[in-house]
Amino acid sequence: MELLKQPPTMKLPAEWFTGDAYADVLHRGEEPSRLRANMVRFTPGARTAWHSHSLGQTLYIVEGVALVQSRHGHII
Hints:
mainly beta
């Protein structure tokens, strides 16, 4: 078994967010895997800038309220 040191929580770049957001890396797959799992926390009222993920993204909301939208889709 290999024990890995947990990287510290990082504040995410201001150019990507309105308000403050922080991330913890939960899993980063080794090559050739592209899998990543991050826990992202938003301060009240914070949001991401519009962006896309070429391989898709799965969001799992564990607390609070989130508004999400696909390109040209309805806000959910």
